[in-house]
């Protein structure tokens, strides 16, 4: 296992009216983040807020190339980002204890915070396909280049860690600065992770190690 200190490339925010950043995702151009009662789009190049959609947004956020997915209490809403309309709804596997959310390989992957688990579910039905065990509380989930990463936040300690998706073994750990929480995680598909900053109301871009 390798351990390294986080190389924070940029910090976005805090944003007007945003007290908490929950889920984070990336649509190839904009970073979307959940802030309790809105899902917001941010330009990662210049830091501008582009738009917001009014809807319950309590935890993880994901994007499948066409639709947004947003955890709202014990449900996951599928959203048309153009209109803001909820297209469909499925149950969340953690029954309200869900945290991170990402889309990969045709499935949704849902972090369950206190159980320290990541669930793969069917995005159409919510059916549970498999569960991966972690050894830390899960606050964000992402896949990039076949690698499974998740964020953690316990007390004043937070990190990003890469797991073996078959065994749950920790392969790499990126340690965040003391007092820096991770409340959502997404890759840009290249060399950046976008990390929600919880009650700091910020988003941090962290360099992905190669």
From TrEMBL:
InterPro entries: PQQ_rpt_dom (IPR002372), WD40/YVTN_repeat-like_dom_sf (IPR015943)
Domain spans labelled Pyrrolo-quinoline quinone repeat: 73-170
Superkingdom of origin: Bacteria
Protein's name in the database: Putative pyrroloquinoline-quinone binding quinoprotein
């Amino acid at each position: 296992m390798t351990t390294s200190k986080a190389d924070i490339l940029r910090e976005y925010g805090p944003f007007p009216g945003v007290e908490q950043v929950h889920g984070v995702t990336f649509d190839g151009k904009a970073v979307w983040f959940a802030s309790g009662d809105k899902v917001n789009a941010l330009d990662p190049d210049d830091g501008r807020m582009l738009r917001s959609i009014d809807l319950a947004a309590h935890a993880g956020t994901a994007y499948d190339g066409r639709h947004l997915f947003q955890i709202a209490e014990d449900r996951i809403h599928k959203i048309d980002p153009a209109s803001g309309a909820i297209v469909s709804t499925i149950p969340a596997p953690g029954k309200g204890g869900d945290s991170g959310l990402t889309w990969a390989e045709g499935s949704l992957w849902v972090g369950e915070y206190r159980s320290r688990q990541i669930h793969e579910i069917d995005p159409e039905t919510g059916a549970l396909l498999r569960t991966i065990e972690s050894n830390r509380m899960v606050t964000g989930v992402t896949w990039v280049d076949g690698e499974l990463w998740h964020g953690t936040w316990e007390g004043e300690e937070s990190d990003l860690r890469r797991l073996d998706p078959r065994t749950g073994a920790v392969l790499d750990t990126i340690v965040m600065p003391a007092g820096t929480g991770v409340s959502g995680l997404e890759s840009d598909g290249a060399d950046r992770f976008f990390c929600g900053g919880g009650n700091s109301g910020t988003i941090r871009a962290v360099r992905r190690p190669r």
